């Protein structure tokens, strides 16, 4: 990291020396914006002021920029102060096409509401009276004020090494630090259904480095980039006490209930973050091919969880070919694909009901990742300029996702297909009036669904597996076979509309109007219909009475409506 920052600073020092040696006309531009903001925390404070400090006060706000140009040299400095934890800034330099460099910093704080777990309360009926199994919740940190502070800083540099073949070297660095506290939830399951919430420390860091080389050969440009990313959590691990395994009503049968648990009556670390390391390689090429132009890339990466030695690999590729059909129309073809593969670790679990009379079972299994898949996308777009004012385009494409070992290992892969189409119109009459409209439609077959189902059929079904004749009950794990209801958050039909209009009666005033609308649904589930709709109009006015002053005002309204499944906690169906 120190070496990279030193190299970046050397680039800046060199650029200053080059500029000093030139005698050109110098231009300077300054902008300054001074304002403030106020947040009312009367209700739902964590939602209203999600990215505010949490102070119910009027706070000052400041924006500024500086531009300096001398010949082929350009310097830009931008900054925004929102509050002491929400700050952004960028420093960049350019000297023609020889040297480029940027350094930036971003900081923001996020307030998060506490989940009161109020929906986790239920009890079984014994006859007509409450009794039997019960679901309870407990806030061990009631009233906790969760917030996280995210800081990101980085830089990149590009240097022209040789004019011949336009050889360039690039380097970049980025670090993300996140500190604060968050809510973590633990569940003592099966015997007590006791859900607890507690505060946990957040101290995460991500470091990313990239270095690359680019050169021109004949009519093509080739580039290679190597990347490295490392993530770790330096916070103390959160732990929770898991209740002693006893009968939920009479408190007895400890040995029997304990034999069904992986652990009980103990404090266990939970919710830990993995320490991960990623290496990536990417090659790119672009240039002229026939009557059109071509660009493509091929990438390979490997990511490893250093805590468990579980690794995953990804192959990716993309290509684009654009060709003019006539003087006013061109076609653009795009293809892209990626293949993910993750290790399949063996999970060794204690024997179910070990040492108890009656049946015992082994639940050891190989964990197959539902992320293993092939993802392919292809599309064709036609863009045509009808006249001096109007441009139209049409897009048609298909996306296929083939999931391996899902919903069951070695079973039929679940394949999702998405057919999408888009139409767009742009109209521009000089600088006075412009408009745009876009409509996009998607038709999705077999979207990703939970392989376990959502609801449980009531009653005792012989199809749940072997049940000893001396047992008057079935085990929870056997009841998995009673579950039904395909459930997904993904739609099968999507309709998306976007409209925008800009009117400038003169160079001192502009009016902008826009409307976004989206509707999606899924009516292919076995007993549910899911629907979502969104409408969002907006209006903005900008006045520039003088080149040194600009005033703007705007209004946005959003209406969101959804209909989806609600699962109520029930016992024995």
Whole-Å distance between the termini? 57 Å
Please indicate the percent range of residues in DSSP E strands (runs of 2 or more): over 45%
- Report the strand count: 30
Question: Which structural category do the helix and sheet elements fall into?
Answer: mainly beta
Radius of gyration: 30 Å
- Uncertain parts: 1-22
The biggest sheet amounts to: 24 strands, mixed
How many helices? Answer: 3
Please estimate the helix content.
under 10%
Give the overall shape, derived from the CA principal axes. Answer: globular
Mean pLDDT: 86
Protein model, in words:
With 573 residues, the chain is mostly beta strands. It is built from three helices and 30 strands. The chain has helices at 2-20, 45-48, 254-258, and strands at 26-37, 59-70, 73-83, 86-95, 99-112, 122-126, 129-139, 146-162, 167-188, 194-217, 220-233, 239-242, 266-269, 276-289, 292-305, 310-324, 329-342, 346-347, 365-366, 373-385, 390-403, 414-429, 433-445, 455-456, 483-484, 493-506, 509-522, 530-546, 549-556, 559-563. The strands form four sheets. It has a 24-stranded mixed β-sheet that branches. Strands 12-13 form a two-stranded antiparallel sheet. A hairpin with a 4-residue loop joins β8 (146-162) and β9. The chain is globular.
In short:
The chain is mainly beta and 573 residues long.
Features:
mainly beta; two-stranded antiparallel sheet; single chain; 573 residues; disordered N terminus; 59% strand; 3 helices; 24-stranded mixed β-sheet; 30 strands
How is the topology of this model organized?
Elements: H1 2-20, E1 26-37, H2 45-48, E2 59-70, E3 73-83, E4 86-95, E5 99-112, E6 122-126, E7 129-139, E8 146-162, E9 167-188, E10 194-217, E11 220-233, E12 239-242, H3 254-258, E13 266-269, E14 276-289, E15 292-305, E16 310-324, E17 329-342, E18 346-347, E19 365-366, E20 373-385, E21 390-403, E22 414-429, E23 433-445, E24 455-456, E25 483-484, E26 493-506, E27 509-522, E28 530-546, E29 549-556, E30 559-563
Parallel strand pairs: 7-10
Antiparallel strand pairs: 1-2, 2-3, 3-4, 4-5, 5-8, 6-7, 8-9, 9-10, 10-11, 11-14, 12-13, 14-15, 15-16, 16-17, 17-20, 18-19, 20-21, 21-22, 22-23, 23-26, 24-25, 26-27, 27-28, 28-29, 28-30
